[in-house]
UniProtKB/TrEMBL annotation, chain A:
Pfam families: E1-E2_ATPase (PF00122), Hydrolase (PF00702). This is Potassium-transporting ATPase ATP-binding subunit. InterPro entries: ATPase_P-typ_cyto_dom_N, ATPase_P-typ_P_site, ATPase_P-typ_TM_dom_sf, ATPase_P-typ_transduc_dom_A_sf, ATPase_P-type_domA, HAD-like_sf, HAD_sf, P-type_ATPase_bsu_IA. It comes from the Bacteria.
TrEMBL record, chain B:
This is Potassium-transporting ATPase potassium-binding subunit. Its main location: membrane. The gene is kdpA. It is a multi-pass membrane protein. The lineage of its organism: Bacteria, Pseudomonadati, Pseudomonadota, Gammaproteobacteria, Lysobacterales. It comes from Frateuria terrea. Belongs to the KdpA family.
Length: 698, 600
């Protein structure tokens, strides 16, 4: 596969959307394959249905032999629909898995075994041996040249290159990978487009990021999450109650027939039908599909979670730690205003600032030029023509500027400029210093401009809060999640930005240690913390946090420490992750409620049908006026099977999530799925009954 | 129902709530860990008891040790009651020379009183000596109630404590609930009851002349004991004059007070509180029925205080009332409406100045419809089981109410202690469902509800249901079981279902109409009573042990509040739905078929 093929494949089909025909057909085949008893045994609710299906089939065979307890056609119909119930459940699971499988296949094609250039020592000029990538081990060094696939996960130790990571991220724009710093991690299966890299391999075969990703989307690594286990226990409890309530109905019925001296005891067929209708088959059938679909939603959000447990924990998060830059504010500050020194014209300040920034390619520098043009219509000059000499920013002076003729314009942080002025025999006017303090208090950054030892004024650089972020924080607050902004800014600036963005709290002048301590302090109050990070110095905090989203652009250490990786490297994704976690739980809860609420209508269908021969007065309970006893039972069984199919899209898509407080959310969901669950089957069963009568099947 | 009916019911509820609050606050002080003005009052007596019994009162027991102490203590009590019954002919205080109780009946009764069920297969005044009544049954009335409260306290501490191993000390909880709660309240109530005419003595039964002599006819028997036949083919009879009657005596008042307060319900006399010496006047009736729900209601508020949020206690009480009040009205209305079989006949069933109206079969005239229905609903809501009317004679719907209240798992007030810890198991289930629906790992009172808690709560909810349906199945299949059934058809089935429901939920009331003092019934019901009490209590202690070890999660806006009307509604719905879904088919074959059949 050449590069172009890879790119087109990944951008269009890495994320499989909707259901293709092939996907549906494969799911149908899988549904039958899953009828193997070993598969069914894992789910107590559906296993009961399985046993019931086998039992009714045997009863049908018995009826065929002429010893039927009920008409052969009736037993056959019940038996058939019980099998359908099972198949529908299997189908739901298969279709949820299907999407993952398709994605895994796409990923697997990137995991081709390539020939790696193994280096004898970590240097470009070292001796090269050609080995298959599957033989690379942690600690090996390889050389990757332009156009080659990177043979395994690793850390760049030498060189810089543009890398196409679309096979993993789906993003076709190449990214820069270089040694040192926070952009040194590379992923196996991605392709170097230009230049070369020396990579130290950090994973053994079968343990790479791609392998883990494939395992995740395939569901091979899917273990049941804690809440899913607790829910299964509760469903098993209900199943057991209904199993006993139905099984004991036979002796009750035999006794009642004797005592009343009329009618027939309830048949095994009807008893089985009643049992399957009562046990929570709807949620039982869709439970695993909901879990798989939750993971799938994560993958479609381009987040790879290492476990379902992490996804579920995301729903429980109490505190979100968010980096200011990139999450709350746009990555760059922008010049917002010129504040001239006393006696200096604002235009003169703008002009000097513009000159000092012309060669400054940073976004901040460019924004100064833009502001000068906007405010005073200053055109851009050509530095060469002006015979100006650019003085670049250095860590020592912490200033940049331009020397031109007699002018020595410098711009920089207030304290740096003040030191420069004092050294040059000048001083910073008190008014200017106050102006700078005011700017800082507003959450903006003051940038002082001087010409020689003459202070010209201050440029106000403002952090730009991302659009809509304030509303997202308000939603978080409604959900009971506290947001804390992490920033390296001073407390004054941090407070102002925090107020403007609407976060609940902030950590200013944050160091990795302070961050780690904050997480530990919050956890000591038994709250769950979520954070995202990318740098190696984020790794300890990522490892400590309960939900840790590492940026895919980040270092290998960060990715190892986190329990999720965001392929888009978008820190705002954390909020989405929390919502997906909650949505997964809500979907389970809603369908459980719906499933159990359904039983009320089913009782009204089946009890009169089962016992009216003994006590004709019980026909008064047939409030739906179902045509006959058999049509009533059959309608209930058919409804019970079809509702699974009807709810598959909901299980896969998840219940619509709204950022509401717990009380409001519960009220809403109880109304929709509780009351809805009571009402819907009355209508559904009646309609099916009418249809059966119409088709003369009853 | 008329205004008078509503007024009587309202008066009852108001009195109950007014008394529950101070009692709840008082009990919170009694069981507080730190010494306070209440526990200082009896500190010396307490210390004396601990010293005499060799109890290390400051030992903090883990859940297993707590459960073991509870179990051993109750087994010992069970053995004592058994021995007293078997040995009573040779023991003092037996003026009527009662014989030894049969082994199966003695076992049944011993289990019944140790489990706070007080199912009675025997008739008190014709079976038990005064010593057995006082030392066996009376003492167990106190101890089984105190055990229930003690377990509840351990469960509450599970919610209150965090990162803790211990749940308190069983012996201290037992002593305190007896010393500070049950004894003083019983003393007070028994004195008032004596003032109303409840007997309290150790005298032999009294033989008194009747006011109006009468006679009855009896068949004349030959030497072989067969009726002598006259030549015309009919039996030869003769009139037997009746000039005197036997009035049973005994230490009734002291036992009745605790049987009402401790949700025991085992009557001193066979007909329980329908007997004029147990419950002579409308006032005694009001006080006794008030005593049934008093401690269970108070404990809800104790719970609220102990977990540091009174609203939580009121919420649980509200959830109970949400179910209790409608059923109280339904039962009263069904009985006041009268017997449907008599509709259309020349029978006046309306309430008037001269008659209570309604279905008076099996009811005492001095209590009327409301006094009887109120008692029936209270005694089945709480796991009391005492009666002042015969539930078997209720209209089908009127009888359905107490039966279904029992089947709800005895959590609508329920037994002292046991009712509330049963309700807490339901609350755990409700919180779990609700937690999922708001997208958070469920928390109740700051404790995360996870798989282990779900397992224990499910077990607690499940066990009584299982015992009822399986027990009933065994009874209706076994010839020995069916032999005890008095009525044909659906009503007979109701009698069986009621008996199993009563035993499997430790209620103890009987529908009547079932002859249950046979080896079969004694064993079946004995097993049900035992399994419904102790495994369930142990499951709740295990749940509490797990909760106590957990850390406390602070509440946020994302935490589901559990004191709101919404949660109260949800909790009530979970209780009703579990009860309805489990028992609807069985009820359809019993009271519902009975009712619908009588309508035609």
């Amino acid at each position: 596969m050449n590069y172009r093929d890879t790119a087109s494949m990944t951008t269009h089909s890495r994320v499989v959307r909707g259901f293709s025909r092939a996907l549906l057909l494969a799911a149908v085949a899988d549904a039958f394959r899953k009828l193997a008893p070993r598969q069914q045994f894992r789910n107590p609710v559906m296993f009961v249905v399985y046993v019931c299906s086998v039992l009714t089939t045997l009863l049908w065979v018995q009826a065929l032999a002429g010893h039927g307890e009920a008409p052969t056609g009736f037993i056959f119909a019940v038996s058939l629909w019980l099998w359908f119930t099972l198949l529908f459940a299997n189908f739901a699971e298969a279709i949820a898995e299907g999407r993952g499988k398709a994605q895994a296949a796409a990923l697997r094609s990137s995991r081709k075994d390539v020939v790696a250039k193994k280096l004898a020592n970590p240097s470009r000029d070292a001796f090269i041996t050609y080995v298959p990538s599957s033989e690379l081990r942690t600690g090996n060094h390889v050389l990757v040249d332009a156009g080659e696939l990177i043979p395994g996960d690793g850390e760049v130790v030498e060189g810089a290159a543009s890398v196409d990571e679309s096979a993993i991220t789906g993003e076709s724009a190449p990214v820069i990978r270089e040694s040192g710093g926070d952009r040194s991690a590379v992923t196996g299966g991605t392709r170097v487009l230009s230049d070369w890299l020396v990579v130290r391999i950090t994973s053994n075969p079968g343990e790479s990021f791609l392998d883990r990703m494939i395992a995740m989307v395939e569901g091979a690594a899917r273990r049941r999450t804690p809440n899913e286990i607790a829910l299964t226990i509760m469903l098993a409890k209900f199943t057991l109650i209904f199993l006993l309530a139905c099984a004991t109905l036979l002796p009750y019925s035999i006794y009642s027939v004797q005592a009343a001296g009329s009618g027939q005891p309830i048949t095994l067929t009807v008893l089985t039908a009643l049992l399957v209708c009562l046990i929570p088959t709807t949620i039982g059938a869709l439970l695993s599909a909901i879990g798989i679909a939750g993971m799938d939603r994560m993958i479609r959000a381009n987040v790879i979670a290492t476990s379902g447990r992490a996804v579920e924990a995301a729903g429980d998060v109490d505190v979100l730690l968010l980096d200011k830059t990139g999450t709350i504010t746009l990555g760059n500050r922008q010049a917002d205003a010129f504040h001239p020194a006393p006696g200096v014209d604002e235009r003169a300040l703008a002009e000097a600032a513009q000159l000092a920034s012309l060669a400054d390619e940073t976004p901040e520098g460019r924004s100064i030029v833009v502001l000068a043009k906007e405010r005073f219509g200053l055109r851009e000059h050509d530095l060469e023509r002006l015979h100006a000499q650019f003085v670049p920013f250095s860590a020592q002076t912490r200033m940049s500027g331009v020397d031109m003729g007699g002018q020595r314009i410098r711009k920089g942080a207030v304290d740096a400029i003040e030191r420069y002025l004092v050294a040059a025999g000048g001083h910073l006017p008190a008014a200017l210093k106050r102006a700078a303090d005011d700017i800082a208090r507003r959450g903006a950054t003051p940038l002082m401009v001087v010409d020689g030892h003459a202070p010209l004024g201050v440029i106000e650089l403002k952090d730009v809060i991302k659009g809509g972020i304030k509303e997202r924080f308000a939603e978080m607050r409604a959900m009971g999640i506290k947001t804390i902004m992490i920033t390296g800014d001073n407390p004054l600036t941090a407070a102002a930005i925090a107020a403007e963005a609407g976060v609940d709290d902030f950590l200013a002048e944050a160091t990795p240690e302070a961050k780690l301590k904050l997480i530990r302090d919050i956890q000591a109050e038994n709250r769950l913390v979520a954070m995202c990070g990318d740098g190696t110095n984020d790794a300890p905090a990522l490892a400590q946090a309960d939900v840790a989203v590492a940026m895919n652009t980040g270092t290998q250490a960060a990715k190892e420490a986190g329990n999720m990786v965001d392929l888009d490297s978008n820190p705002t994704k954390l909020i989405e992750v929390v919502e997906i976690g909650k949505q997964m739980l809500i979907t389970r809860g809603a369908l459980t409620t719906f499933s159990i609420a359904n039983d009320i209508a089913k009782y009204f269908a089946i009890i009169p049908a089962a016992f009216a021969t003994t006590y004709p007065a019980l026909n008064a309970l047939n409030v739906m006026h179902l045509a006959t006893a058999r049509s009533a039972i059959l309608s209930a069984v058919i409804f019970n099977a079809l509702i699974i199919v009807v709810l598959i899209p909901l299980a896969l898509k998840g219940v619509a999530y709204r950022a509401l407080g717990a009380g409001a959310l519960l009220r809403r969901n109880l109304l929709v799925y509780g009351l809805g669950g009571v009402a819907v089957p009355f209508v559904g069963i009646k309609l099916i009954d009418m249809l059966l009568v119409l088709l003369r099947l009853a | 129902m008329n205004a008078n009916d509503y007024l009587q019911l309202a008066l009852y509820l108001v009195a109950l709530l007014l008394l529950a609050k101070p009692l709840g606050d008082y009990m919170a002080l009694v069981f507080a860990d730190a010494p306070n003005r209440v526990t200082r009052l009896g500190a010396r007596v307490e210390r004396g008891i601990y010293r005499a019994c060799g109890i290390a009162a400051d030992e903090d027991m883990g859940w297993k040790r707590y459960a073991l102490a509870m179990l051993c203590f109750n087994m010992l009590g069970l053995l004592a009651v058994y021995a007293l019954q078997r040995l009573q002919p040779w023991l003092p205080l037996n003026p009527q020379h009662m014989a030894a109780v049969s082994p199966d009946s003695a076992v049944n009764t011993a289990i019944s009183f140790a489990t706070n069920t007080n199912w009675q297969g025997y008739g008190g005044e014709s079976t038990m000596s005064y010593l057995t009544q006082m030392l066996g049954l009376g003492v167990q009335n106190f101890l089984s109630a105190a055990t229930g409260i003690a377990i509840l306290m351990a469960v509450i501490r599970g919610f209150v404590r965090h990162s803790a191993k211990g749940l308190g000390n069983f012996w201290v909880d037992l002593v305190r609930s007896t010393l500070y709660v049950l004894l003083p309240l019983s003393l007070l109530l028994s004195i008032v009851l004596v003032s109303q005419g409840v007997v309290q003595n150790l005298r032999p039964f009294a033989e008194v002349p009747v006011v109006q002599a009468s006679s009855y006819t009896e068949a004349v028997k030959d030497e072989a004991g067969k009726p002598r036949m006259a030549a015309a083919g009919h039996e030869v009879t003769h009139a037997v004059p009746v000039a005197t009657q036997t009035l049973p005596m005994g230490p009734a008042a002291s036992q009745i007070a605790i049987k009402q307060l401790g949700t025991n319900g085992g009557g001193f006399f066979n007909v329980n509180s329908a007997h004029p010496y147990e419950n002579p006047t409308p006032l005694s009736d009001f006080l006794e029925v008030l005593a049934i729900l008093l401690i269970p209601a108070g404990l809800c508020l104790t719970f609220g205080r102990m977990v540091g949020d009174r609203r939580q206690g009121w919420a649980l009480l509200a959830a109970m009332l949400v179910i209790f009040v409608p059923l109280l009205l339904a039962c009263t209305a069904a009985e006041q409406a009268g017997n449907p079989a008599l509709h259309g006949l020349a029978v006046d069933q309306h309430a008037s100045a001269l008659q209570a109206g309604g279905n008076m079969e099996g009811k005492e005239v001095r209590f009327g419809i409301v006094g009887s229905a109120r008692w029936a609903v209270a005694t089945s809501a709480a796991s009391n089981g005492s009666v002042n009317s015969m539930h078997d004679s209720y209209t089908p719907l009127g009888g359905l109410v107490p039966m279904w209240l029992i089947q709800l798992g005895e959590v609508i007030f329920g037994g002292v202690g046991s009712g509330l810890y049963g309700m807490l198991a339901f609350a755990v289930v409700a919180v779990f469902i609700a937690g999922l629906m708001v997208g958070r790992t469920p928390e109740y009172l700051g404790k995360k509800i996870e798989a282990y808690e779900m397992k224990m709560a499910s077990l607690t909810v499940l066990l009584p249901c299982v015992l009822v349906v399986i027990g009933t199945a065994i009874a209706v299949m076994a010839p020995a079981g069916v032999a005890g059934v008095a009525n044909p058809g659906a009503h007979g089935f109701s009698e069986v279902l009621y008996a199993l429901s009563s035993a499997s939920n430790n209620n103890g009331s009987a529908f009547a109409g079932l002859s249950a003092n046979t080896p079969f019934w004694n064993v079946l019901l004995g097993v049900c009573m035992f399994l419904a009490r102790f495994p369930l209590a142990i499951a709740m202690l295990a749940l509490a042990g797990s909760l106590a070890a957990k850390r406390h999660v602070p509440a946020t806006a994302g935490t589901l509040p559990t004191h709101t009307p919404l949660f109260v509604t949800l909790l009530a719905c979970v209780v009703v739905v579990v009860g309805a879904l489990t028992f609807l088919p069985a009820l359809a074959l019993g009271p519902i078929a009975d009712y619908l059949g009588s309508m035609r």
